[in-house]
Amino acid sequence: MNPVTPTRDLLGRPLRDLRVSVTDRCNFRCRYCMPKETFGPGFRFLPRAEILAFEEITRVVEAASSLGVTKVRLTGGEPLLRRDLPALVGMLAALPGVSDLAMTTNGALLARWAEELAQAGLQRVTVSLDSVDPEVFRLMNGVGLPIEPVLEGIEAAVQAGLGPIKLNAVIRRGLNEGGILELANYARDHGHVLRLIEYMDVGESHGWKMEEVVPSAEVLALIGTSWPLERAEPHHSADVAQRYRYRDGAGEVGVISSVTAPFCGDCSRLRLTADGRLHTCLFARQGHDLRPRLRAGVDRQELIEELRGLWAARADRYSELRASQTQRPAALGKPEMSYLGG
């Protein structure tokens, strides 16, 4: 099959990546994403009738693949809360244009599903792991869950062939920056790839403050004091992580510097929410609602042209604008991370 020439936006950025949220629900209450003060017992999550069916998701992914998308990542909320998720994985893995099918999870349910997901066609897993200190981990997940089920899930994913595992850690000053070296050591010892992420101002519920951001330069300097690093080339120009190799040969570590060194100029991501809205930026206020058209039976070519027009009109560069100001741009009412899928 001949490769598709990607559709480009107003800034010349190609459409290559699609992140698909399969649910807005999560079994964690991480403060930077779903703080329990907001997402408590009375919070109204999406009703089941408003969530896209697997067939509807597959139609959107197939249309996007015809415009250049090759990488698809399943997200949430927590994607493993979506019933029968391996069935969706199988449907997406069968699409000829999708060459990279991955999932981001908090790992708490991964031991139960890793083998079945791999057999269905999932290729890679990223696990959110903000600390390997048991007490800090309990504090950060917001529900007091011990770390052991997550570590067991990571090992199950390795055994299922879903490695090398990527570990995502959001670093927030005053909370978990003291455990960076411990995280790096765990990843090195187990052959995982650690990604350390600057605390971002996604959504409105977490009370984000710039002073709580730990700059990636500080993180790299800290790691380098124990294990010297050298810069590694990106796998692709649109990769959001800056890669570094350990000079002793013990793998690599990466940083995602979306606050201090924005990468809007290379962003190739489109996001599909669980209820069928397309967002062309993680910080976009509103999405393009596809669900009515999908349920009205829009044909394939019309769907492709709708996606093409949406991407072609894209000019988002929120993080660059934020970096040029002393405070973030005014954007009240932004969707939450748990809704957008990260």
Please characterize this protein's 3D structure.
With about 350 residues, this protein is α/β, with parallel strands linked by helices. The chain has one domain: TIM Barrel (Alpha-Beta Barrel), CATH 3.20.20.70. It is about 30% helix and about 15% strand. It has 11 helices and 12 strands. It has a 12-stranded mixed sheet with strand order 7-8-9-6-5-4-3-2-1-10-11-12. Helix 1 packs across helix 9 (about 300-310) and helix 2 (about 85-95) packs parallel to helix 3 (about 110-120). The radius of gyration is 19 Å and the shape is globular. The model is unreliable at about 325-330 (pLDDT under 50).
Q: Give the strand order, joined by hyphens, for the main sheet.
A: 7-8-9-6-5-4-3-2-1-10-11-12
What structural class do you assign from the helix and strand content? Answer: alpha/beta
SSE string: EHEHEHEHHEHEHEEEEEEHHHH
Rg, Å, rounded:
19 Å
Average pLDDT score: 91
Say how many strands there are: 12
CATH class value? Alpha Beta
Unreliable parts: 326-332
What separation lies between the terminal Cα atoms? 31 Å
What's the architecture, going by CATH? Alpha-Beta Barrel
Strand content: 15-25%
The number of helical runs is 11
- Could you state the CATH homologous superfamily? Aldolase class I
Q: Label the overall shape.
A: globular
Question: Largest sheet, described in full?
Answer: 12 strands, mixed
Q: Which percent range fits the helix content?
A: 25-40%
CATH fold group: TIM Barrel
Q: How many individual domains?
A: 1
